[in-house]
């Protein structure tokens, strides 16, 4: 994080950025698309069988496990219908082998996203007592 | 001029040098091909070797299948060039849809490493013409994901069209449907098999020489087409 005294080295527009409230980390809306891939029901799943057996040995009875994969895809900006179609194509082409796997694509919007590093920020909460900067930082670094 | 047979090295390929050596032992010129190249260097046939390309990340062969050189391999295969996929190479051919079906984790859930009995089911391929139908051979098998699977319609088509090239004899080592160890495409120029014929060409290092006819077959084919 930059202190207010470093704003002069923040490049063009630093005055405007400072005026907009340099004490608040810029938070970009980030969309996350989750692709879940599972073996088709008719396909033997040796890994799932191994896990099922291990659960049984640990005392968890009556649980049958099939094991798949979860892909979390961070997308810059909005997930438009076109972008979603792109991701579905990516799932069909690479993330899943449709001979033996099925996939499911869903959008999750994560408002807490990431801090925009280009925006200058103040240290701590001393410059802007009204903002709980540390609390905001906690969320964004989850 | 001796035929030139290329062997592709992907990141993580293991048996590429063994395959190159098997090609040399067979009397052809062995050409090392790089995964990142967009050229096959004018070779007459291509081998996709065994190993763990890209660490088997995502799925075995799933990433290698998109290597730049594979565009050329797919194009050449479509034009009739002999292509042999060994183990990871077989997985890459299936991921690239040059062969149907897929290879999944062994049903026995262990890595299998053994001298495996096979029966040659088809000699109508560019890589098996030197065998006799029904010939029983012994080839090294070493894999964790060697279970061949395909939907019932595909299996029926493979069996019906004589495109099962090798079948496991004795106990099925990995759960492959119908004990299928290797298959070919419709034209018979693309063959994929899980066992490693390149480890059965030298009496010093292999349990049998049963891998030699595979490389001899393709030389017969290439010799007839010069």
UniProtKB/TrEMBL annotation, chain A:
Keywords, sorted A to Z: ATP-binding, Cytoplasm, Ligase, Nucleotide-binding, Purine biosynthesis
Compartmental location: Cytoplasm
Gene3D superfamilies: Phosphoribosylformylglycinamidine synthase subunit PurS
Annotated region described as Disordered, given as residue ranges: 118-142
GO molecular function: ATP binding; phosphoribosylformylglycinamidine synthase activity
EC class: ligase
Catalytic activity, as annotated: N(2)-formyl-N(1)-(5-phospho-beta-D-ribosyl)glycinamide + L-glutamine + ATP + H2O = 2-formamido-N(1)-(5-O-phospho-beta-D-ribosyl)acetamidine + L-glutamate + ADP + phosphate + H(+)
PANTHER family xref list: PHOSPHORIBOSYLFORMYLGLYCINAMIDINE SYNTHASE SUBUNIT PURS (PTHR34696)
Complex and partners: Part of the FGAM synthase complex composed of 1 PurL, 1 PurQ and 2 PurS subunits.
Family per record: Belongs to the PurS family.
Record's protein name: Phosphoribosylformylglycinamidine synthase subunit PurS
Source organism per UniProt: Microlunatus flavus
Gene designation per UniProt: purS
Automatic annotation (TrEMBL), chain B:
Record-listed E.C. numbers: 6.3.5.3, 3.5.1.2
GO-annotated cellular components: cytoplasm
Biological processes annotated in GO: 'de novo' IMP biosynthetic process
GO terms of molecular function: ATP binding; glutaminase activity; phosphoribosylformylglycinamidine synthase activity
InterPro entries linked: Class_I_gatase-like, PRibForGlyAmidine_synth_PurQ
Catalytic activity: L-glutamine + H2O = L-glutamate + NH4(+); N(2)-formyl-N(1)-(5-phospho-beta-D-ribosyl)glycinamide + L-glutamine + ATP + H2O = 2-formamido-N(1)-(5-O-phospho-beta-D-ribosyl)acetamidine + L-glutamate + ADP + phosphate + H(+)
Pathway: Purine metabolism; IMP biosynthesis via de novo pathway; 5-amino-1-(5-phospho-D-ribosyl)imidazole from N(2)-formyl-N(1)-(5-phospho-D-ribosyl)glycinamide: step 1/2
Main location: cytoplasm
Record-annotated active site: 87, 196, 198
Lineage: superkingdom: Bacteria
Subcellular location(s) of the protein: Cytoplasm
UniProt keyword Ligase, yes or no: yes
Keyword ATP-binding attached: yes
Annotated Pfam families: GATase_5
Record keywords, A-Z: ATP-binding, Cytoplasm, Glutamine amidotransferase, Hydrolase, Ligase, Nucleotide-binding, Purine biosynthesis
HAMAP family named in the record: PurQ
Known role: Part of the phosphoribosylformylglycinamidine synthase complex involved in the purines biosynthetic pathway. Catalyzes the ATP-dependent conversion of formylglycinamide ribonucleotide (FGAR) and glutamine to yield formylglycinamidine ribonucleotide (FGAM) and glutamate. The FGAM synthase complex is composed of three subunits. PurQ produces an ammonia molecule by converting glutamine to glutamate. PurL transfers the ammonia molecule to FGAR to form FGAM in an ATP-dependent manner.
Quaternary context: Part of the FGAM synthase complex composed of 1 PurL, 1 PurQ and 2 PurS subunits.
Protein name: Phosphoribosylformylglycinamidine synthase subunit PurQ
Organism of derivation: Microlunatus flavus
